[in-house]
Amino acid sequence: MIQIEGVSKSYQRKLVLDNVSISLAQGQIFGLLGPNGAGKTTLIRMLNLMITPDAGHVLYQGKPLVPAHLQSIGYLPEERGLYKNMEVAEHLLFLARLRGLSLQQAKTNVNKWLRHFEIESWRNKRIATLSKGMAQKVQFLAALVHEPALLILDEPLSGFDPMNVELILNEIKALKESGCTILLSTHNMKSVDEICDAAALLHQGKLLAQDNIWNLRSNSSKGEIAVRFEGHMLAFANALWTDFELVQQHEITEGRFECLLRIRGNKTVNDLMRSLQDQVAVERIEKRLPSMQEVFVDLISQNQQQHD
Fold first, then answer.
1. Longest C-alpha distance within the chain, in Å?
2. Which burial class, exposed, middle or buried, applies to 204 when counting CB atoms under 10 A from its CB (0-12, 13-18, 19+)?
3. DSSP bridge pairs for 245
4. How far apart are CA 132 and CA 138, in angstroms?
């Protein structure tokens, strides 16, 4: 869907993107991650043709990105901005028309999305009278009203209460199911774990990693296994021998434990199961993968160590 190839950008001799190449497959939710100042916003502005790269190029469905493609792109900026004196439906109609929809199609889409979000009663409310949460929802709807093929969301969950966060996440999943490609720039790592198919991590203008979420988490694995069992802790510990290190243990109820182990050498989960099967009653055993938050911190820490 999108190919960013060897893109670089400087502002007043400060390099903010350094030879960055990222590829987004059609129909996936792709996380764009990185600390403040990593270059995420600059990259998003390039995808919206607000700025141009100093080097490299951006392709949309295999062709150079041009203004005509913006009719197929939806954008929710981090800095929200609605015209406060306009009414909700009027504003959405205006934005849909800017994206190339005919007046009739724009009206049809506005009505459809107001019904979908169950906010038809807001139709004639002025933006200035809306609460922050209501305005956020209208802004999200504004990015969808022309039903784009590519949706770019910059911190879409900021300003929402937990109930509306869940609503927005579910809506993003539904959009993916309908074939929409979604670029999600966020600091909310829990949402990345939950909904993203793949991600790229930027740091100080450079691409540190890009892969599907499973591979990113697996590659940062520290060989830890979580086990829940019923039995005697001593029997469990003895069964480990020297093949597995006991990192943490917690007694849930009398005679039931949760433990975290670390693999030594080239042992596997299957080896552990064989060691335990005659010693304790295993209720659950799973390879523990780090969260995307842990992956994020680990990759940045490694990069900083390499440059110290």
1. 74
2. middle
3. 262
4. 10
CATH 3.40.50.300 domain locations along the chain: 2-218
Q: For domain 222-288, give the fold.
A: Alpha-Beta Plaits (3.30.70)
Q: What six digits make up the tokens of 163?
A: 């109930």
Report residue 88 CA to chain centroid gap: 28
Sequence-separated (6 or more) residues with CB below 8 Å from residue 291: 189, 190, 193, 217
Specify whether the CB–CB gap between 220 and 226 falls below 8 A.
Answer: no
Q: Looking at the predicted structure, is the pLDDT value of residue 191 above 70?
A: yes
- The CB-based long-range contact list for 240-244 (8 Å cut-off, 24+ gap) reads 240/272, 240/275, 241/275, 243/267, 243/271, 243/272, 243/275, 244/272, 244/275
Q: Where are the beta strands (DSSP E) in the chain?
A: 2-11, 14-24, 29-33, 55-60, 63-64, 73-76, 150-154, 181-185, 198-203, 206-212, 224-230, 244-253, 256-263, 281-288
Question: Tell me: the pLDDT tens digits for 47-68?
Answer: 999 999 999 999 999 999 999 9
CATH code for the structural domain at 2-218: 3.40.50.300
Q: Is 297 helix (H, G, I), strand (E, B) or coil?
A: helix
pLDDT digits (tens, 9 = 90+) for 225-243: 999 999 999 999 999 988 8
What is the amino acid identity at position 306? Q
Task: Tell me how far CA of residue 249 lies from CA of 140, 226, 241, 282, 284, in angstroms.
Answer: 45, 10, 16, 14, 14
What pTM, to 2 d.p., does this model score? 0.85
- The answer to whether residue 160 scores a pLDDT higher than 90 is no
Name the DSSP letter for residue 28.
-
